[in-house]
Amino acid sequence: MDIPKVIVDQFMKFWYGYLNCRDKKLEITFLNYGFANHDKIDLDEKDEFNRYPIQLYNYITSFRNIEGLDILEIGSGRGGGAGYITRTFKPKSYIGLDLDENSVEFCNEYYNQKDLSFSHGDALNIPFENNKFDVVVNIESSHRYTNMNKFLKEVHRVLKNKGVFLFADFRDDYLVDRLHSQFQNSNMEIIKRENITRWVIKALELDHVRKKMLIKRTLPVIFRTIAKDFTALKGSRTYRWFDKGRLEYLYYIMQK
């Protein structure tokens, strides 16, 4: 039996705070669905555990050399992507912005990397000045925003001239055209648009055992069914919707 979506949404709000208390071994630093195409990137041994979520970040940010650039990630979560990008591609600065104060506190304590920091803030009211960032990254976060047009306006405001917006997220199939229209009306140029759903599904399949193990190890039985849907574990409603085309995962590169 499927869990009602409203309950899944409430679970998402609860999830971050619970992880801070429960995840004592700091195993869960990535929460995206992952990416697995024909290219398998080289990773350090310490990163292999999170291969597929890392590959999503790598694919989204590998459009150009970002060394020496100022980067803002909106919806940085537990900070895994920010940590990987900062130590691998050497930006001048990387700021992770998140609405969840527990996550921001966790990240500022856990990550000890030069030029990496985390701030509390709202995606619809980004707490930074105009024309500050070369790159804005937004991965698997926007589907929860209440006003996508306002978010895009804020992204445009904080980007430098010719700055780039890197976006990856999923939408219900009937909302895909609406999202594209919102991008077209954002005062930013669409440089690339790609449906990466098949590569996300592949990652979900390859990462199934690891995620199932983490759910069993970190969550009491009462939360496991909803966690399977939240993480799109094989057999869950979310996984089936991706597989049947009811959910599509999209990647955009935009330029101011």
Q: Layout of SSEs?
A:
Blueprint: H1 5-22, H2 51-61, E1 70-74, H3 80-89, E2 93-98, H4 101-110, E3 116-120, E4 133-139, H5 148-158, E5 159-172, H6 176-184, E6 189-195, H7 197-206, H8 208-218, H9 221-230, H10 237-244, E7 247-255
Parallel strand pairs: 1-2, 1-4, 2-3, 4-5
Antiparallel strand pairs: 5-7, 6-7
Detailed description of the structure:
The chain has 256 residues and is an alpha/beta fold. It has a single domain, classed as Rossmann fold (3-Layer(aba) Sandwich), CATH 3.40.50. The protein is 42% helix and 21% strand. It is built from ten helices and seven strands. It has helices at residues 5-22, 51-61, 80-89, 101-110, 148-158, 176-184, 197-206, 208-218, 221-230, 237-244, and strands at 70-74, 93-98, 116-120, 133-139, 159-172, 189-195, 247-255. It has a seven-stranded mixed sheet, with helices on both faces. Helix 5 (148-158) links the parallel strand 4 and strand 5. The longest helix has 18 residues, at 5-22. The protein is globular and about 50 Å long. The termini are far apart.
